[in-house]
Amino acid sequence: MSVDRVKYDADGLVAAVIQQFDSREVLMVGWMDAEALKRTLTTGRVTFWSRSRQEYWRKGDTSGHIQLVKGARLDCDGDTLLIQVEQIGAACHTGDHTCFDADDLHPLVGER
């Protein structure tokens, strides 16, 4: 991944979609600035920038639910990251495996 192609928003952040590497299940979405991305790419553990606390947080340091980096990709526009991980424990702060277990919006399902 060419990190110089990352397009950060006005706050210096880029969205990071976190995906289980083997099942491809989407676990969560977080935010990274350049330093959080650097830490993620160089340590093997996912680091985010907390918009609410205004500080870095490495997933699992307090909960024990760590994310081990297995891959990292940048989308075609350069404004979203896909970080593939081995999730140890729950990904969501609620204790759920994924942050996308909450509300099914019941969309009309398209057909061919």
Number of strands: 6
SSE arrangement, N to C: EEHEEEE
State the separation between the terminal residues, measured CA to CA. 35 Å
* Unreliable stretches: none
Radius of gyration: 14 Å
| CATH architecture name | Roll
Number of domains: 1
* Global shape: globular
CATH topology: Ubiquitin-like (UB roll)
The main β sheet shows up as: 4 strands, mixed
Structural class: mainly beta
Give the count of helical stretches: 1
Taken as a percent bin, the fraction of beta residues is 25-35%
Helix content: under 10%
Mean pLDDT: 94
The CATH homologous superfamily is termed Phosphoribosyl-AMP cyclohydrolase
CATH domain class: Alpha Beta
Adjacency order of strands in the biggest sheet:
2-1-6-5
Description:
By secondary structure, the protein is mainly β. It has one domain (3-8, 15-99): Phosphoribosyl-AMP cyclohydrolase (Ubiquitin-like (UB roll)), CATH 3.10.20.810. It has 1 helix and 6 strands; from the N terminus they run E-E-H-E-E-E-E. It has one helix spanning 34-43, and strands at 14-20, 26-32, 47-50, 55-58, 67-74, 80-87. A 4-stranded mixed sheet has the order 2-1-6-5. Strands 3-4 form a two-stranded antiparallel ribbon. The protein is globular, with a radius of gyration of 14 Å. The model has no long low-confidence stretch (mean pLDDT 94).
